[in-house]
Amino acid sequence: MADEQLKREAQAYVDRIWEDAVADIGTLVAIRSVEDLEHAEPGKPYGPAPFEALQAAVDIAARMGMDAHNCDGNIGYADIAGASPRQIAMIGHTDIVPEGTGWSFDPFSVTRKDGYLIGRGVLDDKGPTVLALYAARFFAERAERTGQPNPYTIRVIIGNNEETEMRDVDWYLEHFDQPAFLFTPDADFPLICGEKGGYSATVRSGAISDVIVDFDGGTVGNAVAGEATVLVRADASALPPAERIDVEDAGEGRARLTAHGIGCHAAFPEGSINAIGLLVDYLLEHDLCSADERRFLQFEQLLFASTDGSTLGIKCADERLGALTCIGGTIRTKDGEFEQTIDSRYPESITGERITQVVGELAASHGATLTCDLDMVPSYQAPDSAPIRTLVDTYNEFTGRHDEAYCIGGGTYARHFACSGAFGPNDPSDPMPDWVGAEHSPDEGFSEEQFKRALQIYIVSIDRLMRLEL
């Protein structure tokens, strides 16, 4: 009966604050908080716009009466003090990936349409970060109303570098203790308890630019490239058309080829079409390259020929974390050489060192060099532990489902914490309509009703976690 009363209170609270929550999501979405290291400075380590978004979230928390702090632009946090200093924590992030192309709506203004919110960061992860703050506020209001402190301190950690290197959480764990339990609202329900290793590298061709004047594709390394362009020394009128590739005269004996693929998150490449790979195949087929460029493009062709690492010699899988994935993210032309990024999500049956060795040797055989940029080892939490079980059971109670915690290829903040999970708010059992994009995609959006339900789930889950001996 007590939990039924709690659910009613949570629902009434969500209904009461919802318009304020939407307005706060809009405040954050309006900031194009893409990492900008070129303009980084002391106090703004990820650039001015990410700092602006972080400070805006800290200001929202302070307005709610939370003890809110901006840690010199590295990360933020906001507390509701409890009877114990031990923390139940949530962590979201206010940085975003670039907007990319293909939007039907303004990416930096929240659009409400047919019960959905549209805008870059609405789902990943500005909207969920706002939900975390409002979940904490529920318990602040209850403690004030009853005069009884919450059993644990509730902390909302506001990340600001999740989409690239997660240097924010590295900084945080150097300066603060681990919480008793943490979840991140930056994933799917019911709950993610394990994550593949996260590997990224850059392959450099060496100074070989000749027939290919410029090659540019993709927006971020952790996404399949939806669009790519190459400028070549060739007669555009002599180049045949091809599916998904536009050919135009760029003047001065040059042709510009633009490929239109199907982009997606690097962790879930099934069904994608990499625009860079389309151009690689076209360049090789029509001999639009020098001999040295051909060697590099032949390596590229192996990279783009599969998404399971089979054509690179690193295909593998294990029972807990599943199969390895590997994609090419971005290509750029710098100082006469090509730089291709690689993103792999790997299970426990291989290591990042092994990936570097195998793919590095393959690159070297094509006259290129590979540098490992990031290697995050796999992580795993027991799905039958009390806090994990509590969250999954609460989700199932709200939805009438019988789902279990699972493992993914994506990398969330949860992997950095000793006792943690990634918990909603997206629900694969309630898919979005076709006109609503997913995270990292054009027209990124999410259902207001799903957001409201998620906030209720978070409130009830936190209350139940506070009854555990963590």
List the helices and strands and how they pair.
Layout: H1 2-29, H2 48-63, E1 67-70, E2 76-80, E3 84-93, E4 111-113, E5 116-118, H3 126-146, E6 152-159, H4 167-175, E7 181-184, E8 187-188, E9 192-195, E10 197-204, E11 212-217, E12 223-224, E13 227-233, E14 245-251, E15 254-260, E16 264-265, H5 275-285, H6 291-304, E17 317-318, E18 322-323, E19 325-334, E20 337-346, H7 352-364, E21 369-376, E22 379-380, H8 386-399, E23 406-408, E24 420-422, E25 425-426, E26 445-447, H9 448-465
List keywords for this structure.
elongated, alpha+beta, 470 residues, Aminopeptidase, 4-stranded antiparallel sheet, 6-stranded mixed sheet, 2 domains
Report on this structure.
The protein folds into two domains: 2-195 and 379-465, Aminopeptidase (3-Layer(aba) Sandwich); 197-376, Alpha-Beta Plaits. The longest helix has 28 residues, at 2-29. The chain has nine helices and 26 strands. It is of the alpha+beta class. The model has no long low-confidence stretch (mean pLDDT 96). It has a six-stranded mixed β-sheet with strand order 1-2-6-3-7-24, covered by helices on one side. Strands 19-20-10-21 form a four-stranded antiparallel β-sheet, covered by helices on one side. Strands 11-13-15-14 form a four-stranded antiparallel β-sheet. Helix 8 (386-399) packs antiparallel against helix 9 (448-465).
